[in-house]
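Students often ask what a 'structure token' actually looks like in practice. Rather than answer in the abstract, let us consider C2H2-type domain-containing protein, a protein of 287 residues. Its sequence is given first.
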Amino acid sequence: MVAYANSHSFSYVPPVVREQRKERKLLDKLENKGVIKPSEPYLCRVCGRKFYTNEKLVNHFRQIHESEHKKRLSQIESARGKRRVNLVAKYAMKMEKYKNAARDILTPRVGCGLADELKRAGFWVQTVSDRPEAADIALRNHMIDMMDRRRADCLVLVSDDSDFVGVIKEARERCLKTVVVGDISDGALKRTADVGFSWKEILMGKAKKEAVSVMGRWKDREILKRLEWTYDPEAERKKYEFYDEIDEDIVRDIEGTESGNDAQEDDVRGWWELDSDSDISSAELSR
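Now compare that with the structural description of the same chain:
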């Protein structure tokens, strides 16, 4: 799985996220003044300490756990060889625990943490230049390269850009399964692909429910393609030439066998008709 985007995409903050951050700041102010009290204390997911205001939790996390995380990273970066491997193994669980907690507690300094979320989901994230269509060109080239190397059986594209219609058509011509995920309900991409889903349908679980029927349709299509007969004149000509050569060889073998049998039949006589020793000696004397 791969994702291409320019630096602006990773620094962009959607309006929904901005509103959530404003609401969070307002709640923090009210909690600090004592106007609002949380129903449950805020829990630090690293050390387990409890706080009655979100601001105290954030300060605690930055002062203690963030500084500890930076120290671990500096130790790993300065180490070499076997010591580096040992440090990575030693701090792996602690660093993973810190990242999971920081994602919910700390606000990203740049953007909304899109790149980190994509990496956590298993995507290979690549930042391209800010030129127009740079991300589209890079993604299109990557998909074509994967198809040329035959490294994929199914192409899943998360986009509403109709510029990718050509790539989807090429993937279908190469017998790849194609799935498109986007916000537009009836876009050109979804009409071209085998299956199309919206993000709302995925969140509702519709995509998961339809996965079984979609796989069944793909299997049926593959079976029909295998059963489909197509006439290839060149292949038929080679096949019949091969059979003609086999027939000629069989005829030769049969003719050779029959001639050998005829020669044997000329010499076949009863035991009483065989030449005796006296006949053989008299024949030799006459010579």
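One point worth highlighting: Residues 233-267 form the longest helix (35 residues). Ask yourself how you might have guessed this from the sequence alone, and why that guess would often be unreliable.
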